[in-house]
Every structure is written in C-alpha cells, then in structure tokens.
Amino acid sequence: MSPQTVEKPDYGNWVSKKFILVPGLLGLAFLGLVFLSLWWILPALLFLAIAVYFGYARYRFSPQGGDVQGQIRALVLAHLDWDGKGQALDIGCGNAALTIALARKYPRAAVTGIDYWGSSWEYSQAVCERNAQLEGVGERTTFRKASASKLPFDDGTFEAVVSNLTFHEVSDSSNKRDVMREALRVVKKGGKFAFQDLFLMKPVYGEPQELLETIRSWGIEEVEFIETRQADFIPAALKLPFMVGTLGLIVGKK
Ligand SMILES: C[S@@+](CC[C@H](N)C(=O)[O-])C[C@H]1O[C@@H](n2cnc3c(N)ncnc32)[C@H](O)[C@@H]1O
Q1: CATH number of the domain residue 217 falls in
Q2: What is the pLDDT of residues 196-214, one digit of tens each?
Q3: How far apart are CA 81 and CA 87, in angstroms?
Q4: Measuring from atom 25 of ligand 1, which residue has the nearest CA?
Q5: Residue 194: helix, strand or coil by DSSP?
Q6: Is residue 12 part of a domain?
Q7: How many CB atoms lie within 10 A of CB 34?
Q8: Structural domain that includes position 156
Q9: Is 1 within the bounds of a domain?
C-alpha cells in the first residue's frame, strides 16, 4: 500500500469549521457593503477577526499545529492513577481519542466509550469503531450510544472512569453536578476517576473547593482539583474563558 492510501484515525477538532466559515462569510459580506458606507468596515473587521481567531484555534488544536487538543486530553490519563486491571469507561467519547489512548496505555484493560453523538458534533459511533481498529485496540474497546445523565450500567461497574470536556454539554440534565455524580456512581469502590471539564466556570459548577466538599459528601475517598490552564503548552490566546481558560481536572479514588 502506498503512503498516500494509508488510512489514519480521525479524532476531529473541538473548533468546528462553522465557527470559521460563518463569521468569515459575514465579514466578507459586510466588506462588500463598504462602497455604500465606510461604517460597514467596522462589522466587517469584527467578523473577519473572529474568523481568524477560530482559524488559529482550530490550527493549534490540530496535529499540524502542535496538537494542543491531544495534549489537553493526555492530561486526563496523566492524572489517572490506575493499575490498568479491569474495565474502564470514557463518558462522552466523541471520536474515541481518549478511549483509544486509555486502551493503548493499559493493554490488559477492556474499555467502553459512550456518547450521545448528537447533531452538534461531527463525531459518530462508526468513526469510533474504525479509529479503534486502525489503532489496534478494536478487540478491547466497545462503543454504545447513551446519555451521560443516565448511564446504562450498574453501580460500581468500572475500575476506572474518565471524561473529557463533556459534562457541561449534557443538555438533558440542568445540574452538571448531577452528571458528575452519575459518573461516580458507576466507579467501583476503590476505583479511580479523572474528569476534565470547565470546572472553573462558576455559574455551572460553583466554587471549586465547595465542589470538592460536595463530592466528598457523596462518599468519595480522595478527590483533588488541578487547573488545566496552568499548562504551559497552551498558547495564551487559547486561555480565554470561552476556549480552554476555565478548564480543570477533578481526579481521585472512590
Ligand atoms: C467537546 S466534545 C469532547 C469529545 C471527547 N471527549 C474529546 O475529548 O474529544 C463533547 C462530547 O460530549 C458529547 N455529549 C454531549 N451531550 C452528551 C450526553 N448527554 N451524553 C453523552 N455525551 C454527550 C458530544 O457528543 C461530544 O462528543
């Protein structure tokens, strides 16, 4: 097989193309009106600047631009203090990047990825399965459609549970702390967890220290908060609050 025909996994990009195309086209449309009045230059420049910003973010998140997205995801596994024996779950697996990384890191583990695969994201179960085959972990990974708000598993099913950038997205639960509690429900007693989300977004999660106290009150033995935005591989321009500036990790042992 020639190098041009080698199939590669597709892990997608957190910045959808529509975030570049929509403001870019609006910017060009307003630019076209400048000959009617010079004032149109202001919205034109604003929309073009938004398109350039999201274009930059999409590039930096991609493998060609330094794979900031992959490096952020890798923090989840770096903080999962697990021996790799048993079953693991990835909640909101997208195109299975974290699920597959987990299966590769722990060659004895069986890993399940669940996602709602709604229309807001260009991810699918078929792509997860194809990526897992391409990465050589197809035999140890399973994917199924489910909502993080009501996981189709008994209490304490998994030795390890991870999730990346998903809980805030769960639209069928208004309280995102309930989604975290549901994730912790399926962790076995003594099992490990590592969740990364917009935990510094106070209207969603409240104060981090108070959130930790609440999690302890659910019977969780060890829990710790780590600020993702401190990571020096994240470019300053991507640390804005609507990008990854409010990201944090909540990790521990049940
Ligand atoms: C920002 S993406 C992150 C995907 C993946 N974890 C990653 O690191 O690339 C958010 C994911 O949450 C998923 N999601 C949204 N609502 C969900 C729900 N109710 N249950 C499970 N997954 C959901 C989306 O389909 C999407 O795959």
Answers
A1: 3.40.50.150
A2: 999 999 999 999 999 999 9
A3: 14
A4: 117
A5: strand
A6: no
A7: 13
A8: 67-253
A9: no
User: How many domains is the chain partitioned into structurally?
Assistant: 2
Reported as a single tens digit per residue, the pLDDT across 45-82 is 999 999 999 999 999 999 999 999 999 999 999 999 99
Whole-number Å distance, alpha carbon 228 to ligand 1 midpoint, is: 19
Which atom of ligand 1 is the closest one to the Cα of 11? Answer: 9
Q: Are 90 and 153 in a shared domain?
A: yes
Place of tokens 């999201």: 54
164 close to ligand 1 (CB < 6 Angstrom): yes
DSSP type of residue 221: S
Is 143's C-beta closer than 6 angstroms to any atom of ligand 1?
no
Residue 240: which of 112, 29, 56 has the closest Cα?
A: 56
Q: Both 106 and 36 in a single domain? A: no
Q: How far is the CA of 173 from the centre of ligand 1 (A)?
A: 14
**Cβ-based neighbour number of residue 40 at 10 Å:** 16
Hey, whose CA ends up nearest to atom 13 of ligand 1? Answer: 92
What is the rounded CA–CA span in Å between residue 16 and residue 213?
A: 36
Same domain, 37 and 160: no
Domain shared by 152 and 194, yes or no: yes
Same domain for 31 and 80? no
189 alpha carbon to ligand 1 midpoint, in Å? 25
Radius of gyration of the chain (CA): 20
